[in-house]
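User: Please fill in residues for this 101-position structure.
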């Protein structure tokens, strides 16, 4: 499935207010709890990955950030969450490991 199709499906299934509330809840839980509940956002992210048929590339030249781009476009302010930052950090670590080998 193409990026824009996934974006439209997510936006149609999760109205703007719901998407904003998901991020607001994440930010609140990250601030107040030691172990925030990422179950919903992880399920949505898994859906995005599966619909894109996304796999971890074998080299950094083949890196595709489309899944995170989709999440950023569909969920306003998600880039402010620790969840999103953890995804970025995982990417950086993967790239560093790949560059060392």
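Assistant: Residues filled in for all 101 positions:
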């Amino acid at each position: 499935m193409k990026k824009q199709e996934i974006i439209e499906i997510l936006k149609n299934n999760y109205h703007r207010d719901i998407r904003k509330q998901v991020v607001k809840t994440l930010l609140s839980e990250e601030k107040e709890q030691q172990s925030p509940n990422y179950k919903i956002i992880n399920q949505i992210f898994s859906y995005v990955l599966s619909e894109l048929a996304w796999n971890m590339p074998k080299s950094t030249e083949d890196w595709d950030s489309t899944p995170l781009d989709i999440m950023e476009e569909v969920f306003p302010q998600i880039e402010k969450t620790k969840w999103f930052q953890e995804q970025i950090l995982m990417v950086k670590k993967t790239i560093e490991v790949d560059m060392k080998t």
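For context: The helical segments are 3-13, 16-32, 39-52, 66-74, 82-100.
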